[in-house]
Design goal:
By secondary structure, the protein is mostly helical. It contains six helices and no strands.
């Protein structure tokens, strides 16, 4: 009989496989410039917006609920993020760490999909629950922001 740890590992393998399949086209068309990073960022955002249960599984591990199943990030996330960072390392300004650029895109996507966006003090965040459509009005605003952030991080450093 499978243990809870075995089950979690199997489910995380399935999430990783589904993410790989969803990102396959973007990875194949990837170029080591800002358009390439935007393409990957959009595919990543689309996958997790359309599969909130996958993000919930990652959160489960990050929150310590799956502390007995360490190493999922090392196994599934770090190889791809390191590969992308290595491909853009010579394309970003010297004051931009390519590893943090890649991780920042991921963190922003996770944060947005988990908490939504609040534009005014009295506005309720738009959370992306499994039963809700992933394309709320704030989705495109966030996607535009993500593109601007990528553009700025690829821009030459400003002169003093």
């Amino acid at each position: 009989m499978a243990t809870k740890v075995d089950l979690y590992r199997e489910v995380m393998q399935r999430v990783h496989t589904a993410e790989d399949e969803a990102m396959e086209d973007a990875v194949a068309r990837f170029t080591s410039d800002r358009q390439g990073i935007k393409l990957l960022a959009d595919a990543f955002l689309d996958f997790y917006a359309g599969h909130p249960q996958a993000l919930a599984l990652w959160q489960h591990g990050w929150m310590g609920d799956a502390a007995d199943v360490a190493g999922m990030d090392v196994l599934y996330v770090q190889p791809r993020s390191a590969q992308i960072a290595d491909k853009i390392r010579d394309r970003v300004p010297p004051d931009v760490d390519p590893d943090y650029l890649v991780w920042s895109v991921m963190w922003c996507v996770y944060g947005f999909l988990n908490t939504g966006a609040v534009h005014t003090p009295d506005e309720t965040p738009h959370r992306h629950a499994p039963s809700s459509a992933p394309r709320h009005t704030d989705f495109h605003g966030f996607q535009s922001f993500l593109h601007v952030m990528i553009d700025r991080l690829f821009a030459p450093p400003s002169q003093p």
